[in-house]
Amino acid sequence: MSNAFLQTPVEYLKGVGPQKAEILKAEMGIFSYGDLLTLYPFRYVDRTKFYKINEITPDMPYVQIRGRFTRMKTIGEKRAKRLSAIFKDESGEIELVWFQGIKWMVDKFKGDKEYIVFGKPQLYNGKWNLAHPEVEEVSEANTRLANAWQPVYPSTEKMKLKALDTKGIARLMRPLLTLMHGKIEETLPERVIGKMKLIAREEAVLQIHLPSTPEKLQKVEFRLKFEELFFIQLKLLKLKAHRKEQFKGFVFGVVGEYFNDFYKNHLPFPLTNAQKRVIKEIRQDTGSGKHMNRLLQGDVGSGKTLVALMTMLIAIDNGFQAAIMAPTEILANQHFETISSLLGGMNLRIALLTGSTKTAQRRELHAALLSGEIHILIGTHALIEDIVQFKNLGMVVIDEQHRFGVEQRSRLWKKNLNPPHVLVMTATPIPRTLAMTLYGDLDVSVIDELPPGRKPVRTLHKFDSHRLEVFGFMKEQIKLKRQIYVVYPLIKESETMDYKDLQDGYESISRAFPLPEYKVSILHGQMKTEAKDFEMKRFVKGETNIMVATTVIEVGVNVPNASVMVIESAERFGLSQLHQLRGRVGRGADQSFCILMSSHKLSSDAKLRMNTMVRTSDGFEIADVDLKLRGPGDITGTQQSGILNLKIADLAQDAQILTYARNVAIDLLEEDPDLMKPENKMAAERLAELEKDRTNWSRIS
Ligand code: ADP
Ligand code: MG
């Protein structure tokens, strides 16, 4: 919010002393009038409605009752002391309880007056009570009732200690809303307002705090959500346009020998149409002289590696080096092996660089990279250390992007004066809304087709009590020469406990699947790299039947003969993780299975997760359910939740508004790319302000 009024320090507001100001800053980041005005209510309570005491039912979040106090007494001693009051209307009685402020309450309420009480009904010993209800005399309440839709504000424990609970905040808000009159400027161009039938900004700000009717509130929310999302989109789209202008990309003018040789002579299977389309998109980008910054989304098993490989070959054909960065060593090793074998006999030098590359080897590698002898470097974050320099890095592929922080990516970026083209590959399906918001400035390619002949994985949910049955099934599958993963959750907070689960699980499986008939591998993050490698290789070669592992195998591992995925304590995994894990099977021609093991006690969210997995294998659908269950912050990692910082829009719910906002922003920029027209002046100013506020977050650079 732009003008001086909105920037007024919050201390200037009546009722905000130094202490409250401090708390508002520390707890909510509220420094100014503008900040306070965007502390939006998260809910409203309808205070027009009154209930009789005998109408109270367990599902009511709040009740409002009109009546009189009959008895009042203090019960218990010291800490256990409480005030119990009996409140009566013509239908019955209810107990009101206070644990604090007892003395004050006793003096305040008079037996001969009529009151309105408001609170959450609770059943205690078979009787209803209200703990710490709001109490008002009927005469006092009349004024308030003029504004019956009462906002409920977010608050924290510390705020509540300084009387900044929802009521306290509402009390501050009222004078501010009066002061605000006539001072809130419009930010959106008139045409947009007309087109989207938006209500004026000042009215929206007023009514979000004091809605007149539910219908009006909808319009108010629409206006504010639209505005919020519109400016995010405007910013991202401008950034994208700007980057394209600013950076010259390396021109990959030819598709040459390596690409063609590979395509004609080494490709192990025909590309899917989706793979072809994406490669074409990438060729167009990299051949145009623009700088490519592309997100490649493709479900697990959709064949992204091959696309990456062919993209790198285009770079090499044009005299550049290429690199691929993976989030784990296992995955880097696997990429190294896959790519080396695919490119075998093509006279290209491919190198692997990870945390466990030995010093002497490293030195040699660094030199070979600088001289340009190495064509393709495959590695983990070791690849972004400053000491790793290339002769001419032209293309970087980042696999399974969600594991990399923005910071890590940016380091890779700095390796060249001229940034290499970047292809970010992710299997975590990001809901469209989130992708539009987080990656709105990237170009997006989607592989929406799995290679032919894949049978959908059959997913079953089994309770722990059916373990023997599951073991029996596993034995049948092993007889058919299939391999099996058994995965245990690993959640940071309780690592030691988790490892115990894993160890116990390993032992019980070893007992149920004894040597020499069965061979069991174990793999977890605390093992030494060589040990991990060793176990992984044994499993890949088919020397062991079962791989007991933590989620280290979640990302990218490719063992086509493994066709059963058993997930232990599946209720402890998030949906996108479950989907990733399931993606480890179903890669060969055999029917594959995913078995979700859980205890009987499941929360409703956990039930929904299990049911979703059983019902669908569509990554985007799963991502949408995930977004609804967890909210956007959790999905993309905590770094981004702060970054999004949405005040009112909700990506899980407001997909439609987001699409409108994006389209309107696109239209606007098409007509006025630099927002120079007078009618867009306010929008340009608002954008500049937002840009000042926030760091660039969604860029690869
Ligand atoms: P992801 O997209 O999950 O990284 P991968 O690149 O690991 O998937 O590919 C999964 C499996 O599919 C690999 O075994 C790969 O060889 C195979 N594959 C990739 N493309 C095709 C294709 N066009 N036809 C058949 N199999 C393919
Ligand atoms: Mg992959």
Describe this structure in words.
It is a single chain. The protein is globular. The longest helix is centred in the N-terminal third of the chain and has 33 residues, at 214-246. Helices cover 43% and strands 17% of the residues. The model is unreliable at 635-643 and 694-701 (pLDDT under 50). Among the domains are: 48-145, Nucleic acid-binding proteins (OB fold (Dihydrolipoamide Acetyltransferase, E2P)), CATH 2.40.50; 257-447, Rossmann fold; 458-616, 3-Layer(aba) Sandwich (Rossmann fold). The strands form four sheets. A seven-stranded mixed β-sheet has the order 6-7-4-3-2-5-8. A hairpin with a 2-residue loop joins strand 6 (121-124) and strand 7 (127-131). The protein is of the alpha/beta class. It is built from 27 helices and 22 strands. The protein binds adenosine-5'-diphosphate and magnesium ion (MG).
Blueprint (SSEs and pairs):
Layout: H1 4-7, H2 18-28, H3 33-37, E1 43-46, E2 63-75, E3 82-89, E4 92-98, H4 102-108, E5 115-119, E6 121-124, E7 127-131, E8 134-137, H5 138-145, E9 149-152, H6 157-161, H7 166-179, H8 190-196, H9 201-209, H10 214-246, H11 257-266, H12 273-287, E10 293-298, H13 304-317, E11 321-325, H14 329-342, E12 350-353, H15 359-371, E13 376-379, E14 393-398, H16 406-413, E15 421-426, H17 432-438, E16 443-447, E17 458-463, H18 467-479, E18 483-487, H19 495-512, E19 520-523, H20 529-540, E20 546-549, E21 562-567, H21 575-582, E22 593-598, H22 604-615, H23 619-630, H24 632-636, H25 638-644, H26 655-671, H27 681-693
Helix pairs in contact: 9-10, 10-26, 11-13, 12-13, 17-26, 22-23
